[in-house]
Amino acid sequence: MANTDAPAVSTADRDQIVRLVFGTMAAQTLRATVRLRVVEHIGDTPRTAADVAAEAGTEEQPMSRLLRALTSLGLLNEHTPGTYSVTGTGTLLHRHHPASLTSFVRVFTEPAVVRAWEHLDDSIRTGRPAFDTVFGTDFFTHLGQSPELSGQFNAAMSQAVSETAAALPHAYDFGRFTSVTDVGGGDATLLAGVLAAHPHLTGVLFDTAEGLAQAPATLERHGLKERCSLVAGDFFTSVPEGSDLYLMKSVLHDWTDDQAVTILGHCRDALPPDGRLLIVEPLLPEAADTHTGASLTDGAITYLSDLNMLVNLGGRERTRKDFEDLCRRAGLTLTSSTPLADAEPFWLLEARLESGT
C-alpha cells in the first residue's frame, strides 16, 4: 500500500539525480569519440553517419547512435536526418585544435584513473587511496611503469594548464625577479607562458625524468631553449637553488599534508631572503555552496577533484586556512591569495620566508 505520508518529490529533484548518474556514461561517450576520431572524420563540412562510419571503420547504425548522442550533448549539430557537423565545443575533441582537450579526455576516462572510483566508499572509510589496493602500487609509480600512459598524462596536464599559462603572466608582478624555477612543471607549458611574456627572466624546469620528457619540444616550439634549463630530480629530496622566484601549479593537491609540508620545506630551503613562492591551486571556500542546477559548476568540479585526489593519490584540495597551516609548518608565511582571472577555479597564493628564518 502506498505511503500517503511520504513527502512529495519534485520532478526537478529526480531529474538532477538521474543526470548525475548518467555523467559516467557521458564521459565514456567522449572517450569513444576521441578514440574513434569522430570529430576529425567529420572535419569542417557536414558529413553523413555513413561517411563517418566508413572513415572510422565502424558499423553505420551504431555510429549513427553515437552521433545522435553527441548532438544531444552539444558537441555536434544534426542539419538533416543523418547529416552532422561539429559545434564550437566539439572542435575541442580534435587532436590538432590549438586548445584540444583530447588527451585530457583520454586520461580522465582511462581505466587506470576511473577504476579506483569504484571503491570510493573504501577510501572514505579508511582515508587512504583505493588506487594502491586496486593496482598494487601508487599512482605515480604505475604511471612511470607505462610510457604510453605517462605520455598521455603529460599531454593531458599540458592541455589542462593552457588557460593558466595564458593568465598567470599578466596576474603577477614578475618584473622584480630574475629567475623562476617551476617545481613539478611537467612539459614546460606554464613556464613557457611566463618566460615568453617576460623576456628578462630565465627559467629552470624541475621535475622527474618522466615528467620532463616532452619539455624540450615545448621549449623549442616557443624559442626558449636558451633561456630555460631542465633539471631532473625528486622534490621530496630537494629543490634546486639559484632562483628568486619558485612556482608550483597543481602539485600540493596530489599529496598528503605531511608530504606537502616536505615539498614546501625544500622550497623554503632554496629561497633567498627576498625570494617568493607562488602556489597555483584551486581554493575551497570554508563552507561549500549548495548547487541545485543540472550542470556541474566549477565549485562542484573542485569538490569532485578533491575526491579524485583521495581515491587515486591520497592528496586533497584545500582552503586558504589549510594552505596557511602548511606554509607555517614549513617555515613560510602565506602573504596573499588572489583568484586567477580567466583560469577558474585556480587561485594564486604567494608565500615568503617566515620572519627570523
TrEMBL record:
GO MF entry, a single one: O-methyltransferase activity
Residues covered by the O-methyltransferase dimerisation domain: 19-94
UniProt keyword list: Methyltransferase, S-adenosyl-L-methionine, Transferase
Location of the O-methyltransferase C-terminal domain: 117-332
Biological process according to GO: methylation
Active site: H253
SUPFAM superfamilies listed in its UniProt record: S-adenosyl-L-methionine-dependent methyltransferases (SSF53335), Winged helix' DNA-binding domain (SSF46785)
Keyword S-adenosyl-L-methionine included in the entry's annotation: yes
Pfam families referenced in this protein's UniProt entry, alphabetically: Dimerisation (PF08100), Methyltransf_2 (PF00891)
Xref: PANTHER family: O-METHYLTRANSFERASE CICE, PUTATIVE (AFU_ORTHOLOGUE AFUA_4G14580)-RELATED
Protein name (Swiss-Prot/TrEMBL): Acetylserotonin O-methyltransferase
